[in-house]
Amino acid sequence: MAGWWRGVIGFASRRMDRNTWLIFGYFVGSLLLLALAAFGKRQGVPPSGDPEIADKSDVTLSAKYTGEEPTELSERGVPQSWDFWAISDATTGGPGIVYVLAWSISEYEGHRGESCLTMRVLENDNGYGRWCASHLYFDRSDGDHKWRESMVHVTRRYETIGFLGRRIWNSKDFKERPGNTELYSAMGVEELNWSFRNEHGEKFVSCGVCEKSWLEVTGEKPTRFFEP
User: Fold this and answer.
1) Cross-strand partners of 137
2) Which of 152, 122, 3 lies closest to 54, judged by CA?
3) Are 51 and 57 in contact (CB under 8 A)?
4) What are the C-alpha distances in Å from 222 to residues 102, 181, 197, 214?
5) 111-139 tens-digit pLDDT
6) What was the pLDDT predicted at 77?
7) Which residues lie below 8 Å from residue 205, measured CB to CB, with a gap of 6+?
8) Residue 81 CB neighbour total at 10 angstroms
9) Closest CA to 85 of 73, 100, 105
10) pTM, entire model
11) β-bridge mates for residue 97, sequence order
């Protein structure tokens, strides 16, 4: 077998000039780089130099959670089982750094829901501001298993906020850096639709407020936390 390979290499050496070998080497090297990049993406490793998912591992170490189920947290202060890069991809806005400000795991009539409040701080103003907040949810019963932006479908329960059938996507752009007043004011049904209370009968299993991320985004410490 070794002799056969030496013969193949010798034949190729006689038939291929130096430039051809350089092109061949470049092609093989490119394939290897693409394979490594794809492997890294599958493993949740951020592409080098992507500001959208820049390392903020020293920001969300502190999280308050009051639920009944112990939850192992990642270095970002969110449940270890959550894919932060998927959360980053689902957060509205363009290139910028994503922060998870708060998160919750709840149960209602046997259904388990996972939600988080995120903020993308853009590198440049996109015309609507540099601060883009999103209310995201993850439904494990959903076959796609993706983080999505929360949405309110206006039924008679919400008929005071618009015509029946209207769909309200739960995101909010801030023209100026929001403080606590602006962020808490945007948590109504027509904007972020976020609450720290179990207003609809759901039971919090575990939840947290990522205090360091909140402080870095708003410049103020959070003053509201989940109520069991």
Assistant:
1) 115, 148
2) 122
3) no
4) 10, 10, 15, 7
5) 888 999 999 999 999 899 999 999 999 97
6) 80
7) 67, 68, 69, 105, 106, 107, 112
8) 10
9) 100
10) 0.69
11) 121
